[in-house]
Amino acid sequence: MIQIQLSNVTLVLGAKRIFENLGWEIQLGQRIGLIGANGAGKSSLFKLIQGEYSPELGGSITRARSVTTGYLPQHPELDSSLSAFEATLEGNPRVAEVHAELELVEASLSDPDVYGDQRKLQRALEQQHTLIEEYHTLGGDSYPERVRGILLGLGLVKSELTKPLSVLSGGQKKLVGLARLLLVCPDVLLLDEPDNHLDLPGKIFLEKLIREYEGTVVIISHDRYLLDAVVTHIAELEDGRLSVFAGDYSSFIADKETRMARQEEMFRA
Q1: pLDDT-derived band of residue 169, with 50, 70 and 90 as boundaries?
Q2: What are the residues whose beta carbons fall under 8 Å from the beta carbon of 71, sequence distance 6 or more?
Q3: What angle do CA 213, 248, 9 make, to 5 degrees?
Q4: Are 54 and 135 contacting, i.e. CB atoms less than 8 angstroms apart?
Q5: From the CB of residue 257, how many other CB atoms can be counted at a distance below 10 Å?
Q6: Phi and psi angles of residue 197, each rounded to the nearest 5 degrees, phi first
Q7: What are the Cα distances from residue 60, in Å, to 49, 147, 269?
């Protein structure tokens, strides 16, 4: 199943043409390593998919119905007055929304206009049941513990959870941004160098997370070991063109070297 399709996409920023007539299909369940030289346009491609940039006329970006994306930029924008725990807790606003809606419904059950009307009462009870199920799915009363577990798993220590983001490093803020995304669980994760500043336990946690993620993951990384451990495909952005290879990073490099050697032989011939 194709979740996101880019067709004849051209992106121009200022006076620079980033890529031209680019095509790409991101399919359900893929783990894609997006690679390319610095300045090739990898982050710009993510922003294009996310909707921060728009393609030139003639190009299109199509999503399958109801497909959601979550984007982790290299420098997440977060409220620096919040603690790491508080900022992550707000990562999935739906939790607070469901809790508030549930309180309103439960309060309505004591209203004579509701409990005295069989139809209204039935609707309120059905809504209450639906909200309770969603609340439990999102984590319910254990949601704060889930937040804490993700942050600690990514490499933050307990004392850092209560510190304001203003005193944390850029790498630590990025961990908070990643944790917020994991709580939302979008269909497609777009991760721009999430492994930067991670220690070994954090990288192990990230590898496990990507391998076991129920949705699709596209990751920009310069760590060949991480790419070999998690990806099913490599997408290389080079000279404004995108080429896709089925396999891990090492297999991609070996295949590319073989192709370049053949091209050189043909050129010499």
Answers
A1: confident
A2: 46, 47, 49, 50, 181, 190, 192
A3: 80
A4: no
A5: 10
A6: 75, 5
A7: 10, 37, 41
pTM greater than 0.70: yes
Looking at residue 7, its pLDDT comes to 94
Which structure tokens are listed for 220?
A: 């920009």
| Burial class, 197, CB count within 10 angstroms (exposed 0-12 / middle 13-18 / buried 19+) | middle
- Give pLDDT tens digits for 198-255: 778 778 888 988 999 989 999 999 999 999 999 999 999 998 889 999 999 999 999 8
pLDDT tens figures, 233-242: 999 999 888 9
- Provide CB contacts within 8 A for 131, sequence distance 6+: 98, 101, 102, 105
Taking each helix axis from N to C end, the angle separating 143-154 and 170-184, rounded to the nearest 10 degrees, works out to 140
What tens digit of pLDDT does each residue of 111-154 get? 888 778 788 888 888 888 888 888 787 777 788 888 898 898 88
Burial of 180 (0-12, 13-18, 19+ CB in 10 A): buried
